[in-house]
Amino acid sequence: MCAAARMHSAEPALDAALVRRLLSAQFPQWSGLPVTPVTPAPPAPRAGASGASRASDVSGVPAPVSGDNAMFRLGPELAVRLPRVEWAAGDVRREQQWLHRLAPRLPVPIPVPLAVGKPAAGYPWEWSVLRWLSGSTPTAGAVAAPAGLARDLAAFVTALRSANPSGGPAGHRSVPLASRDGATRAAIAQLGGAIDGAAATALWDKALRLPEYAGPPVWMHGDLTPGNLLVNRAGRLAAAVDFALMGVGDPTSDLMVAWNLLPASVRPAFRSALAVDDATWARGRAWAFSIAAVTVPYYRHTDPVRTANARHVLREVLADRSA
Q: Residue 305: exposed, middle, or buried by beta-carbon count in 10 A (0-12, 13-18, 19+)?
């Protein structure tokens, strides 16, 4: 398998041959290294599987790969990251500008770009060469060390929020929940009998009545999902990746990791470590719900792994009565 699976109708063909052409023209020092697309793992390991780097290597609900950027492993130590769609191109430039400033402040490695590629060979946007970060993506429903991972995630979020926000760009998800109202209600309708529509609507209606964030602007990752995290063999946090939605502002959406990855048993510890009040916790749950609800109808025909993960989140959120 040499190509990245398409996620969007307007997405160009992204394959190993394109990556090799780009490298040969712009970074010949790396052009002889093998190029392998990073793909999502199947729900359970298969003996003898080969030909692509997998996003997860344990059973459960597998983690998706990025919906907006394609990743290719470049030799044993590097990776190439290419935007899939025009709207993601600016996010890659954001990473190129800011990640090297945040990296020293964080307790785990993040993908600091080593080189910035230019549009060429029929590919229209800037792209990045990064250091390959070791680890496997955690699997919702099969977290190896839930208590330790909850502590690690709280420490990561705390460190990120403590970084100097001066001059930082506005976070893509630093917006009121009301800005997602139309899309969320449309998604609930599209989901039909796949979820309890009355319970989902009640949850969303209640969330829209919550007070908005009133704290100072701080750094946020913006997309803390299983596919954007790496864990070591012990199940502890080893790295955080894909900062495309990063920025400064209301960090509430980073709480969604409590429902898209952490089991219910350790959510109280995660919440306590971040000193989250009732209203903020409820907004975080609503963020997790809204993102998952919109994901299912958008990706269900193009990314079954992402869709399965989103359905898991919907079940977790609707079963949670803590907010």
A: buried
